[in-house]
Design a protein that fits this description.
By secondary structure, this protein is α/β, with parallel strands linked by helices. It folds into 2 domains: 7-124 and 200-267, Rossmann fold (3-Layer(aba) Sandwich), CATH 3.40.50; 128-192, no CATH class. It has helices at residues 39-45, 70-84, 96-107, 128-139, 148-155, 162-169, 186-197, 223-232, 248-251, 253-264, and strands spanning 7-11, 14-20, 23-28, 49-55, 89-94, 112-118, 172-174, 180-182, 210-215, 236-241. Helix 2 packs across helix 3 (96-107) and helix 4 packs antiparallel against helix 7.
Length: 270
């Protein structure tokens, strides 16, 4: 039965939003994101899937930890699946979540029905921009702000690009007293940036249906990057979403959903 409103649940320290009915689909968000960033896409898929939108460690309402690594993110997912009694899932990951998804596939290939990797490769990335963003967040005096307009104005000198500011401000919420607070663990994430940007280990080919989506305006996934992914996942196909940057789901949601369903339809029995 379809749920009209998302259900929030917890397991193994994860906060998870759930919506829809059908085969299980887990969507892993990127760095500085949260599960609800993907709710608009989940709503487009809710008639085909039971969609799970977790906040990963140090993000959103999930647990905080000084430890970070893609093996740990994969273990978080596997432990949560055990609490829910899920034998196998469809898995989609964006950016950091995409690397976590690929690592999960390497460690537990029998627990996956399909894999979707959105705008990320297996190689290492420099995260200088993310470091600057975190430093700007740490420098922001939340106590001196009473409205979101105050927050935006205070952040503008260090983050002049409006879209980036809006993305950062999504990570601020009010506590029970009405004061602003961060929804992400700033210091642990700052210390984890090298681990977030690291490359994934090579592994033997895994025969699982895999879709790699990239934004035409992004530059995160080159043709050579896709070839590296395809060596690990030989059943991979590459789709470029025209006009999309790194946040493909926000830039081109219709085109993203169409590409997903073209990939999944032959695999499913609706």
């Amino acid at each position: 039965m379809l749920s009209n409103e998302p259900i929030a649940s917890a397991g193994q320290g994860w906060h998870v939003l759930e919506v829809g009915s059908g085969e299980p689909l887990v969507i892993l968000h990127g760095v500085f994101g949260s599960g609800d960033n993907w709710m608009s896409i989940a709503r487009r898929l809710e008639h085909q899937f039971r969609v799970y939108l977790p906040d990963q460690r140090n993000h959103g309402k999930s647990f905080r930890s000084e430890e970070f690594g893609y093996d740990l993110l994969a273990a978080d997912l596997l432990e949560w699946m055990e609490t829910r009694g899920l034998e196998a899932i469809h898995l989609l990951g964006h950016s950091m979540g995409g690397k976590a998804a690929m690592r999960f596939a390497a460690l537990a290939p029998d627990r996956l029905k399909s894999l979707v990797v959105v705008d990320i490769a297996r190689r290492a990335y420099r995260l200088d921009t993310h470091r600057s963003m975190l430093e700007a967040m740490k420098a922001l005096n939340l106590a001196a702000c009473t409205t979101r307009s105050d927050l935006d104005r205070a952040l503008q000198p260090s983050v002049p690009e409006e879209g980036t500011r809006l993305f950062i401000l999504k990570n601020i919420e009010r506590d029970s007293t009405g004061a602003f607070r961060w929804r992400i663990a700033l210091d642990p994430l700052l210390r984890s940036l090298d681990a977030i940007g690291t490359s994934l280990e090579e592994h033997a080919p895994i025969q699982i249906p895999c879709l790699v989506l990239r934004g035409s305006e992004s530059g995160y996934v080159s043709d050579a990057d896709f070839e590296q992914i395809a060596r690990c996942f030989p059943q991979s196909r590459l789709v470029t979403i025209q006009g999309a940057g790194h946040w493909v789901h926000a830039d081109r949601p219709n085109e993203l959903t169409e590409a997903l369903m073209e990939f999944w339809n032959p695999l499913m029995h609706w």
